[in-house]
Amino acid sequence: MVLAAGLGTRLRPITETMPKPLVPISGRPMIDHVLDLLVEAGIETAVVNVHHFADRMEAHLATRAAPAIRISDEREGLMNSGGGLAKGLRLLSDPLVMVMNADLFWVGEDPREPSNLSRLSAFFDAQAMDMAMLVVPLARTTGHNGRNDFSLLPDGRLVRYREDLGAGVVYAGAFVLRRALFDDAPEGAFNLNVIFDRVIDSGRLFGLVMSGEWITVGTPEAIAEAEATIARCAAVAGTETPAGT
């Protein structure tokens, strides 16, 4: 599922005339960068929730050949991140679901290695985990607020960030979860942090450090920063010598 229904208030005035996921970054809407990552990882079906300029979102998503898109309609009222995910999960039957934010993506992965999302899928261990999350060190973020979200403990578990604990990391906007976590989710709108904290308390939230450069676009100024990072990574990729040559 791709969480894409937010108002994008910090990106105004741009989002006064278009939904945030359709704001172009390096010539392509943000959400296409995200959906391309899912396709690369073998995801065939994705739920996308819509609210702000919902008709434009649906029209754009209908132009994509892959993945197959199912719309979770929030026109009548925003459900916040947790409520939106809970509603969208009703359109999926799989016991495990991959979730991404429409405005968080990355570039510059090592082409010789499996993709970040493929690694995340392989990393998830249903015996030990309820949720596995991609994380990134602050040094490899663009457009972020400069604060760590979690501490990554030596055994791979994540807890809320504390300076005296493991290495500080940022939530990279992608995770795999057992959909059963939402069987008793609150009704109506609620923040996804409610679920994160529950899984932390159970000791079953684990983190995987992603490769490449992570990008978030929350303000108009962040667009140029994101495009500069994309261009830099593309230039590096173009000058690298293929393995074995």
TrEMBL record:
Q: Where is the Nucleotidyl transferase domain?
A: 1-106
Instruction: Please tell me whether the keyword Endoplasmic reticulum is annotated for this protein.
Output: no
Please provide, alphabetically and separated by semicolons, the GO molecular function terms listed in this UniProt record: nucleotidyltransferase activity
Q: Which Pfam families match?
A: NTP_transferase
SUPFAM superfamilies named in the record: Nucleotide-diphospho-sugar transferases
Task: Decide whether keyword Transferase is in the record.
Answer: yes
Keywords for the protein's UniProt record, in alphabetical order? Nucleotidyltransferase, Transferase
Q: What is this protein called?
A: Mannose-1-phosphate guanylyltransferase
